[in-house]
Amino acid sequence: MEPDILLAMLLITSPVGTPAPPPSEDVLARVSSALRVQEILGPDEVYFFAYPDEFQDDIDGMRRRWLLVKDAPPLADWHRFPPRPVIQRLMQFNRTLRRSLMDQIDVLPLPDRDHWNTLVARLREDYDILNELDDAVNEHLSVFYRRLALLKAREKMGLENYLQGLLP
């Protein structure tokens, strides 16, 4: 492992609040760069590690992020899924179908309502997955939030479906 990445990982895997040594400008740049390589910090997040006097706050922020995304898939996994417009069309179809089913539930005989309610609940679960994937493929969101969305999508989809890129 490269020394810069090792230093960054040692710093962020310590508990939140653990004092970090005062950094030099060189260390700030190297830690920032290493966190970008590890996809904990995005290339557009230039405000982190910009000032030595904010180093402790920045490190604690990265420690909190690390706790959330340490098991998250790499950002490159977003390529397993279709482009954002396709996902958004699927989300719209899901919403329309759910509304249609919910509008008809009251006129159904009682035994059929349970089946339809189960179907509506399943559609809601599928929508939640699509919503996470929409965030994951959204290139306007930060690396951190996109990886977090990939993690949530993987948990909701199941590993096998996730690895195959199978949509609900």
Q: Can you characterise this structure?
A:
There is one protein chain. It is built from seven helices and no strands. The protein is mainly α and 168 residues long. The protein folds into two domains: 3-69, no CATH class; 75-164, no CATH class. It is elongated and about 70 Å long.
Topology:
Blueprint: H1 3-12, H2 25-37, H3 55-69, H4 84-104, H5 110-136, H6 143-157, H7 159-164
Helix pairs in contact: 1-2, 4-5, 5-6
Summarize the structure.
It is built from 7 helices and no strands. α5 runs antiparallel to α6 (143-157). The two termini are 38 Å apart.
Q: What percentage of residues falls in helices of 4 or more residues?
A: 55-70%
Assembly form of the protein: single chain
Helix tally equals 7
Radius of gyration: 21 Å
**Averaged pLDDT:** 91
The shape, in one word, is elongated
Strand content: under 5%
- Uncertain parts: none
Number of strands: 0
- Total number of domains: 2
N-to-C span: 38 Å
Structural class: mainly alpha
Biggest sheet character: none
Written as H for each helix and E for each strand, in order along the chain, the element string is: HHHHHHH
